[in-house]
Each structure stands twice: as structure tokens, then as C-alpha cells.
């Protein structure tokens, strides 16, 4: 972590070089900022030598303000640690003063601030100092309790700056706590928190004329169940849906489309920066080549009407083979015959990470409340999902997707 170490005017400043060493040993970057008082006890040169960075102390130094000025230092820091914090500096901080660089940095930061006071026992016990300490503590500044014992002034009592190793341990515990807290928040938010997921659902509708169309029996139940599960796992979900009679899922961005062409455009846009694309929609492979602008009339003298069809774009393959491919692309295969061969071939042909195969022979699956599946992955493994409500099936599909995400994270680590 990045630590700005403030050193103010207390005899305990002689321990600051050791503190810098201990913090660096613990893996932190340390930049030292001194008050004028601090420089009377230890030289900037010493602290520069142990920290590896120039030491700064002037608020109005043009050279310094153009480089790592007080605002930049306040931004750079993950923690502002002032050790020792003298009675004088504590009073300036409690008053909200910005008269020197160190107090200006404390005013200009949103980062945590920690003070290790160091002063004579009577100064520490003084009600003004205690009032200032209470005010800083109320402002969420972390105050380390000073140690007790023989003091440099010859007196014995409470007021000694904690030893560098104690301060380092306090800093370590503090960062650990922050990390645990952040981890806990992420856990609470779900394993897909921070991930953008795009899902297609339902049928597409390819118009023949203003009153007729070609479509299929997809109800959207499978795709909507996936969207709900993804949202509950913490993802930001965009659901690109063909016309269905289902309520829009809460907290999901629903993009309603009709034709495959419209779905293609919406998916392309939604997949910008996406982490996962799941194509659960039953997209018409063909559309009418010349959609009539007026209702086609029944013609006397002929029992046939021929419709010329033209191929629709393959949405899944376009995204999975495209330059902005999400980390994972998952396709479906709705098959009636040679089901496993067809699923394996789609896995390769469409360049996807997983194919969810459903056997739709005999009118199964389309519109039904339940489904059963085989999941085909690129490593050759096949995972069955027993017949269950589509919501349960969707949860099982996401178990496999979470495994694929952790696999891809491991691959990134191994390749870096
Ligand atoms: O909506 P329900 O009633 O709940 O039914 C669920 C379902 C049967 C629709 C669903 O489980 C399913 O199987 N969806 C995919 C149906 C399909 O179109 O399968 P396919 O084998 O024709 O296509 C393979 C994959 O390519 C699919 O992921 C499909 O979305 C995608 N595709 C296909 C054609 C195309 N032009 N663009 C595509 O993206």
C-alpha cells in the first residue's frame, strides 16, 4: 500500500527512520512529509535515504507543487500515518488548519488517517490535548494509544510514541481489516458482482407482411430464468428479448426487439465491455427476403404462394468470433436428432466456451416450465442437468459458468 508518513516535532522522531524501514519491509511504499518541528529532530536526508523518495515539507514550494504536491500526495496515499504526532500538530489538525504541508494533506484527503502521538506525559494528559484528541477521534481519525514508561525528558508516564514494530503491526491489522471488509462486501454482493452479463431470450419474429410473420414456440422462460439468476448472483444484466408474454424481471435492463436483425444490433451494443454473453433465444435462421409492405392477398387460380427466405446473421457466432468478444460466450443448442454431435459441432463452429444442449424433439422444452440438459465444454467434459424447473436449470448453468470464470482467472494468472 502507499503510505504518506508525516513526521512532526517530537523527540520520538528519532524512531521515524526505523519505522520507515519496518513499513517498507512489510511491502509498503512510503513517502515522508515533515513538519518544520520534525526536521529539528531528524534530517530529511536520513528519511530520504531510508524511504527511497525525496522528503517534502514546504507547502508553497513551486517545484514540489508542480510535481507531487499536497493534493497529489493526498490522492496517492492509501493511508496517512503521522508518527510521531506532536501536541502542536494535533492541535493544528483539530482546528482544521492548513498552515503547513502535513496539515494541508490531512485536510485534502478522503483516505484514512492514523496518528501515533508522542509527547511528554503532562502534555498528553492536558485537557486541551485530550479535547483535540477526542475531536480527531470523532472525525474518524485512528489514534494509537501512546505507550507508558521512561520519557526522553526524564519523566515517567503515558505519552511515548508506540514502538515502530507496534505501529507497523497496527498498520498491517488496519489494512487486513479493510481487505476483509471489502471481501465481505463483494461476497454479500454475489460472485458476479462487477460483471456485465448479456442474455438473449425468446423467439424472433420475421415479418412476411404487415399482418403475418414467421416465428417459433420459444416462450422466453429459459432466458428470463437465466437473467433472474444472473441478477441474484450480483451481475449487471442486459436481457435482449424477442416478443414474449412474461413480466420484465426486476433490476434487469430489458431491451425488447422483434427480428433477428434488431436482436443482432441490440446485442452488439449491449456486449460492449460485457464479461459474459448467453444466447438462449431461438433466433430465426431465415427471414423473408422481400417483406411485403401491404397485406398479401389470396390469389385466385393458384394454390401456392412461394416465400423467398434469406439467411439471418448468426448473433452468437458474430459476437463470439468478433473483436469485442466477452470473456465467456455460452450458446444453446435446440436439437431433435443427432443431438450430441450437433452440440459438439456448434461448440466449435460458433467459437463458444459452453453449449447447453436441450433435446426439443416431440415439442419438448419450448414453452414448458421445465427442462433437462447436457452442458458441453471446450475441455471435452459433459455435465448433465436433470429435469427440473427452468429456474433450477438456470442455477445449474450458472454453477458451470462460475467454474469457467474461475478457470479463466487462473489462466490469466498463469500466463502473466
Ligand atoms: O424460451 P423457452 O420456451 O423457455 O424455450 C427455451 C429454448 C428451447 C428456446 C432454449 O432452451 C434454447 O434452446 N434456445 C436456443 C434455441 C436455438 O435457436 O437453438 P439453435 O440450435 O438453433 O441455435 C444455436 C445457438 O445459436 C443458440 O444459442 C442460438 O441462440 C444462437 N443463434 C442461432 C441462430 C442465429 N441466427 N443466431 C444465434 O445467435
Automatic annotation (TrEMBL):
Q: In which residues is CTP bound?
A: 285, 295, 313-316, 332, 346, 350
Q: What GO terms are given for molecular function?
A: FMN binding; metal ion binding; phosphopantothenate--cysteine ligase activity; phosphopantothenoylcysteine decarboxylase activity
Q: Which Pfam families match?
A: DFP, Flavoprotein
Give the Gene3D superfamilies listed for this entry: CoaB-like, Flavin prenyltransferase-like
- Active-site residues, Swiss-Prot/TrEMBL: 153 (proton donor)
Q: Does the keyword Ligase apply?
A: yes
Q: What cofactor requirement does the entry state?
A: Mg(2+); FMN
What sequence ranges are listed for the domain Flavoprotein?
1-171
Q: Name one GO biological process term.
A: coenzyme A biosynthetic process
Identify the InterPro entries for this entry. Answer: CoaB-like_sf (IPR035929), CoaBC (IPR005252), DNA/pantothenate-metab_flavo_C (IPR007085), Flavin_trans-like (IPR036551), Flavoprotein (IPR003382)
Task: Recite the UniProt keywords alphabetically.
Answer: Decarboxylase, Flavoprotein, FMN, Ligase, Lyase, Magnesium, Metal-binding, Multifunctional enzyme
Co-factor: note: Binds 1 FMN per subunit.
- The reply on keyword Magnesium is yes
Q: What is its EC number?
A: 4.1.1.36, 6.3.2.5
Positions of the region Phosphopantothenate--cysteine ligase?
A: 197-416
**DNA/pantothenate metabolism flavoprotein C-terminal domain: which residues?**
193-403
Q: What does this protein do?
A: Catalyzes two sequential steps in the biosynthesis of coenzyme A. In the first step cysteine is conjugated to 4'-phosphopantothenate to form 4-phosphopantothenoylcysteine. In the second step the latter compound is decarboxylated to form 4'-phosphopantotheine. Catalyzes two steps in the biosynthesis of coenzyme A. In the first step cysteine is conjugated to 4'-phosphopantothenate to form 4-phosphopantothenoylcysteine, in the latter compound is decarboxylated to form 4'-phosphopantotheine.
Q: What is this protein called?
A: Coenzyme A biosynthesis bifunctional protein CoaBC
Per the UniProt record, the source organism is Ignatzschineria cameli
Organism placement in taxonomy: Bacteria, Pseudomonadati, Pseudomonadota, Gammaproteobacteria, Cardiobacteriales
Gene label? coaBC
Amino acid at each position: 500500500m502507499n503510505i504518506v508518513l508525516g513526521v512532526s516535532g517530537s523527540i520520538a522522531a528519532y524512531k521515524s527512520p526505523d519505522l520507515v524501514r519496518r513499513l517498507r519491509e512489510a511491502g509498503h511504499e512510503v513517502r515522508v512529509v515533515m513538519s518544520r518541528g520534525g526536521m529539528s529532530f531528524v534530517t530529511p536526508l536520513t528519511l530520504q535515504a531510508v524511504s527511497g523518495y525525496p522528503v517534502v515539507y514546504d507547502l508553497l514550494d513551486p517545484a514540489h507543487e508542480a510535481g507531487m504536491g499536497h493534493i497529489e500526495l493526498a490522492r496517492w496515499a492509501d493511508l496517512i500515518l503521522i508518527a510521531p504526532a506532536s501536541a502542536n500538530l494535533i492541535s493544528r489538525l483539530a482546528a482544521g488548519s492548513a498552515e503547513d504541508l502535513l496539515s494541508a494533506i490531512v485536510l485534502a484527503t478522503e483516505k484514512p488517517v492514523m496518528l501515533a502521538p508522542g509527547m511528554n506525559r503532562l502534555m498528553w494528559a492536558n485537557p486541551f490535548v485530550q479535547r483535540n484528541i477526542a475531536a480527531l477521534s470523532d472525525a474518524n481519525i485512528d489514534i494509537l494509544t501512546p505507550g507508558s514508561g521512561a520519557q526522553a525528558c526524564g519523566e515517567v508516564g503515558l505519552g511515548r510514541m508506540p514502538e515502530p514494530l507496534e505501529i507497523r503491526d497496527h498498520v498491517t491489522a488496519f489494512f487486513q481489516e479493510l481487505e476483509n471488509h471489502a471481501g465481505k462486501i463483494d461476497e454479500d454482493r454475489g460472485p458476479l458482482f462487477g460483471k456485465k452479463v448479456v442474455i438473449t431470450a425468446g423467439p424472433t419474429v420475421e415479418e412476411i407482411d404487415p399482418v403475418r410473420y414467421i416465428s417459433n414456440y420459444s416462450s422466453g422462460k429459459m432466458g428470463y430464468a437465466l437473467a433472474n439468476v444472473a441478477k441474484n448472483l450480483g451481475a449487471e444484466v442486459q436481457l435482449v428479448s424477442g416478443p414474449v408474454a412474461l413480466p420484465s424481471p426486476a433490476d434487469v435492463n430489458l431491451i425488447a426487439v422483434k427480428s433477428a436483425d434488431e436482436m443482432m444490433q441490440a446485442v452488439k451494443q449491449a456486449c460492449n465491455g460485457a464479461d459474459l454473453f448467453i444466447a438462449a433465444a431461438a433466433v430465426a435462421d431465415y427471414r423473408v427476403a422481400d417483406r411485403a409492405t401491404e397485406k398479401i392477398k389470396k390469389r385466385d387460380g393458384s394454390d401456392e404462394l412461394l416465400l423467398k427466405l434469406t439467411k439471418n446473421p448468426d448473433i452468437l457466432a458474430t459476437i463470439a468470433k468478433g473483436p469485442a468478444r466477452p470473456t465467456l460466450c455460452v450458446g444453446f443448442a435446440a436439437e431433435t436428432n443427432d443431438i450430441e454431435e450437433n452440440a459438439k459441432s456448434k461448440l466449435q463452429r460458433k467459437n463458444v466456451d459452453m453449449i447447453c444442449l436441450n433435446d426439443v424433439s416431440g415439442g419438448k422444452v419450448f414453452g414448458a416450465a421445465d427442462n433437462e440438459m447436457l452442458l458441453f465444454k471446450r475441455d471435452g467434459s459433459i455435465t448433465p442437468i436433470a429435469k427440473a424447473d427452468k429456474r433450477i436449470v438456470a442455477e445449474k448453468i450458472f454453477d458451470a459458468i462460475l467454474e469457467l470464470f474461475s478457470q479463466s482467472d487462473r489462466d490469466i494468472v498463469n500466463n502473466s
